[in-house]
Amino acid sequence: LELALGAGSATYALALGEFGELQRLMGKHEDARNTLQEAVVLARTVFAHDDPTRKKKAIDHSSVALFQMYDAHVMLDTGDVEEALNVLEAEVYPSIRGMLGAKHPLTQYSKALAALCLQKSKTPRTERSLVSADLLEEQPQDIIDEVLEYLDTFDNSKSPYSEEHPWVLSLGGYVMDTE
Q: Which of 21, 56, 72, 152 has the smallest set of CB atoms within 10 Å of its CB?
């Protein structure tokens, strides 16, 4: 990939991040962490742009937050719930929501992933300093259920999020009608 796409290219950064997610899905967590951390650094570099209102270059690109979310998911998979929640609360959810809006599927999934971490966290929600108001208003399972329903009916009931989709599976799957 590096030779074919160019080590410092945006295309390589995107491919690297998705490769890291594939490693996570295959259970290669250590490899996934390394790959995703490299993808985040590269994406920050290739997608940075000059912004006269800031002293530093701006890094407003959803790929950076996406790869951070993938990395947080690796942390969750390996039991580092608190660190995963910190990344999701401080970096991922606010960035994705700000760039893509509250109703975007990626925003919804990052919110549900944070709720999943809150369920597994040993630190009470009321003692967390970074928990956004969105995550405090409802119980974590209610957030997860709402996001699953949203994904199931996304795009006028023609959802691309099948019951085998990795996001759906990681949130516990759809509840099937038993009528």
A: 56
